[in-house]
Structures are given as C-alpha cells and as structure tokens.
Amino acid sequence: MTPLTTLLTALDALNSNKLRSGLTLLGIIIGVTAVIALTAIGNGAQETITARIQSLGTNLLFVRPGASTSAFGFAGAAGSAATLTLEDSEALMDPVLASHVVDVAPETSTRSQVVFERENTNTTVIGVTPSYLPVRAYELADGRTISDADIAKRSQVAVIASETAEELFGLRNPVGHTIKIGGRPFEVVGLLEEKGGTGFGNQDDRILVPVSTAYYRLGAQRTAGGEITVQTISVQIANEDVSDAATEQISSILRLRHRITDEDDFSVTSQLDTIETLEETTQTFVIFLGAIASIALLVGGIGIMNIMLVSVTERTREIGIRKAMGAKRRDILSQFLVEAILLSLTGGIIGVGLGYGFTYFFDDVELGGQALNMVFSGDIALIATGVSGAIGLFFGIYPAMQAARLHPIEALRHE
After folding, report:
1. Does pLDDT of 31 surpass 90?
2. Which pLDDT does position 162 carry in this prediction?
C-alpha cells in the first residue's frame, strides 16, 4: 500500500464512526487546551510581576539594613536594625567615590490611618526626598512634589497617589485640601499619576511626605546619634552594565562610614537580580501548571488506545479479508498507527485553536478585582501538538500490533 492509500483508508475508517471518533478526540482536545491555557496564565503572571518590578524605576540598586534588632534577648528580623541614615544616602552621591551613581532616593515607610472629613483609609505613608519621583519613575498629575525646603522645615505636606486620592476624595481634586495622617494635619500639595497594579506593593495606594516629617512627626525608629534613619535607599545607576562596579562603590562608601571591618550591616541588591529570581520562581510555577494539564493528555492517550483496541476487535473480519487479498503485516500495522496518529493530531490542532481562543477572550478579564493577564506561547502550542501526535503513536502501537498479528484464517472465522 502506498502512503496515500494508507491515509485515505484510515480517514475512511475514522469517518465511518463519527461519534466515536469525536468522543475520542475530546480527551486530547481538553488536554492540549488545558496545557496552553494554564501556561498562558503562568506566563502572564510572570510578565505582570516583571513589569511591576520594572515600574519601580530603571537601573536600580536597593540598599537595605543587613543587621537585625535585638531587645530583651530576642533578635528581630534581618534588616530591621536602624543602620542606614539620610546622611548615608547623601554620601552615595559623591561624584568621585560613586562615579556610577546617577541619583539616590532614600525612604522610610509606615502604615497609618488617613482621614479626610468622613472618609478614612489605612495606607502606606512614605517619607521621601525630592529625588524619589524621578528615581522611582513617578509622574505628577497635579500640584508639586516634596521640596528640599519641606524637608528642612519638617513641613506637614503630602503628595497623594491616585487610588488613595479616589478613596478619600472621590472625583474631587485633592490638591489644596487638608488630611489627617496619624491624627496630624497635612496639606495635600500634589497628586501622582496612576501607575497601575493592585495587591501587594500597590504603587497607587500610598502617600508621600518629607522624610524629616515622617521621622520626627510619625514616629520613625531613632538612632542613638539622632540621625534620620531610612529603611531603603534606591540608587539609580547609569545602566545595568555597571551594576557590579556600582555595588562595590556603594559597599565601600558605607563600610567607611559605618567603620565596618567584619560583617556588613547593610545589603545591596539589584533590580535585575530581583527580576531573575522571580522569573525562576514563576517559571517553576509555569512548568508545574503544564505538568498538571499534561495529565489530561495522558488520559486522552489511554482513550485512544482503548478505542483502537475496540476497533481491532470489531474489524477482525475486515483484517482477515485484507490479509487474504495480499495485505502484509506492515500494511495493517501502518493503517492502525495512522488512524491513532490522525486522531491525536486532529485533537491537538483543535486544542491549540481552543487554547488560543481562551487566552484571547479571557485576557484582561477582571478576576477578584485584578485583571487576568494571559500570554499565548507559540512554542508551547507547537510542543503540545507534537506531544499529542507522539501520544497517538505511543498508544496506537499496541492495538496496531495486535491487528497485524492476526492470522488471516482465524480472522475470517471471526463473527
């Protein structure tokens, strides 16, 4: 038999029982659709996380305390000690010792109750300097930002983010109004543009105040020397290529300032390191989701084997007639293999189409107050189609061999 004859014969055999063939396809279709849909969800989550980290600013290094507090014999969490100060951040702007540093943005944050008239909310209040907005890639929608004069005077002024403003003021412009933070009155002098993103680390749910005001008015942690402490120093560097050199410069300056001869009391991490770590984590999550969905493909393959075994039993007499007319074992073997592969490949192709449709229609759909981001992967679609074909081949071999082994005389006697 020629390959074309084998293909046409297989198609005719499958077409003779459309309902059974269609039901057999379902297992493969569901499996491929599930693989594509779940990996699209995983890839979308990975893309969303990466975008949110990048939205913090570009080419950033983060300096945080590396030591821990100790009180009454109990050690606090790593990074909880007040080892970084506002003066440390100013020292990192030295053009000679820190030549790769473009700008720095120290910050200290706390959670506080914020009240305007009858509305109130609990949000993050961040003490900042004027460099915070450009370093962290914020834009002003209205008003002005925190100034050096505000820091020097410890002014009770605030720049409010879009989501917090909406909760407190609705559709009104908050600039010029007075809010209470921790019971203290603050004049709203600026409104931030919306950055997007919800949940943990929501950048649109916060209020910015002068770092000195946050320290002296809102109960920040104090040092023995009375210096203003900060929890994080965001350092903007020229580009990612100088990340290692900039890290070494920052470490050298802080070791000199803190008179460190042994273990550092600070840590320096890069934005790129954070992205790579999260990408590795989410990639494991994507693989896990794909593995779970692949179980449906395995079940579909078992269904193909089951149907092909039934088909061999039903067509025993047909096999005997074909062998009596000169068909060889390889002809029978190839026909049943082609039938199994056709079933699985057809199911795979339909599943890819349904998976693409699923990612297209459900992308950006609101789920639990958050937009569902789905990213279709062509590579995954090709792999899923190839795997579905391989499953048809693997699970079709045994039924095909059973058909090819039938003795023509015994097959002709079969009723």
Report:
1. no
2. 92
Please state, in angstroms and rounded to a whole number, the distance separating the CA atoms of residues 393 and 401.
12
For residue 219, what pLDDT band results from cuts at 50, 70 and 90?
low
Local structure of residue 227 (DSSP, 8 states) = P
Lowest mean pLDDT among 250-259, 284-293, 378-387: 284-293
> Does the pLDDT at position 323 exceed 80?
no
* 3-class DSSP assignment, residue 99: coil
Over 70: is that where the pLDDT of 70 sits?
A: no
Beta-sheet pairing, 119-128 with 60-65: unpaired
Tallying the residues shown for the chain, one arrives at 415
- The one-letter code for the residue type at 166 is E
DSSP H helical ranges for 363-407: 378-405
- In 3D space, the residue among 218, 167, 174, 172 whose CA is nearest the CA of residue 192 turns out to be 174
Looking at residue 24, what DSSP letter applies?
H
Pairing status of strand 206-210 against strand 119-128? parallel
Q: How far is CA 358 from the centre of its chain?
A: 19
- Here the tokens at position 369 are 């107050």
Question: CB atoms < 10 A from the CB of 361, how many?
Answer: 10
Task: Give dist(CA 317, CA 70) in Å, integer.
Answer: 86
Please list the residues that pair with 269 across neighbouring strands: 62
Provide the pLDDT for residue 198: 45
- The residue with greater pLDDT, 342 or 140, is 140
CA distance 224 to 201: 31
DSSP 3-state of 81? coil
pLDDT of residue 20: 73
Residue 19 buriedness (CB in 10 A; 0-12 / 13-18 / 19+): exposed
Residue with tokens 């919800």: 198
Angle formed by the axes of helices 3-15 and 329-362, nearest 10°: 60
Distance CA 270, CA 201 (A): 18
Helices and strands in the chain, H and E counts: 13, 14
Most confident by average pLDDT, 14-18, 138-142, 261-265, 388-392:
138-142
